[in-house]
Design a protein that fits this description.
alpha+beta; Histidine-containing Protein, Chain: A; 2 domains; 3-stranded mixed β-sheet; 6 helices; 41% helix; 23% strand; globular
């Protein structure tokens, strides 16, 4: 039987087009893991349209999506929160963090924001350096957005 990690990688490969679309549609991923031997994707979409595009892509990959559980919600307050954040003004825009052994984006997110599920904020701010939120390197300098 494959390990959880092997199962996760296999399922992520199968649903890679869905994961790519999630990034393109700016869906904020909260969870990507194996649960009950299925790929579990949880996230918050910026609009109903983005959510529907993700579901259309899921159905194109596997119409029965028997090995996938997706919990994609639409967040009404997302636009208001981002508008409020930019209106704050004089605060420092970001800081830099050097990746330490054993770090994950979730752990770094917990350290800076007090919330591990905010890791996609760090990933989005470092798209020029990171191809995958699960692949960070010790010594890498990451931008931590405010």
């Amino acid at each position: 039987m494959a390990s959880q990690e092997e199962r996760l990688q296999t399922l992520k490969q199968k649903y890679q087009s869905v994961l790519n679309l999630i990034q393109q549609q700016q869906v904020r991923l909260e969870h990507v893991h194996v649960q009950d031997n299925k790929l579990f994707i949880g996230g918050v979409a910026p609009s109903e349209e983005a959510k529907n595009k993700v579901w259309d892509q899921i159905k194109m990959v596997d119409p029965s999506y028997s090995d996938l559980t997706a919990d994609i919600r639409v967040e009404q307050t997302a636009r208001m929160q981002s508008a409020g954040a930019t209106a704050g003004g004089g605060q420092q825009e970001h800081q830099t963090y050097t990746v330490q052994p054993g770090d994950t984006l979730s752990r770094i997110s917990q350290q800076f924001y007090g919330d591990a599920s905010q890791y996609m904020r760090i990933y989005q701010a470092n798209r020029d350096k990171l191809s995958d939120p699960n692949k960070i390197q010790v010594g890498q300098k990451l931008t931590i957005p405010a």
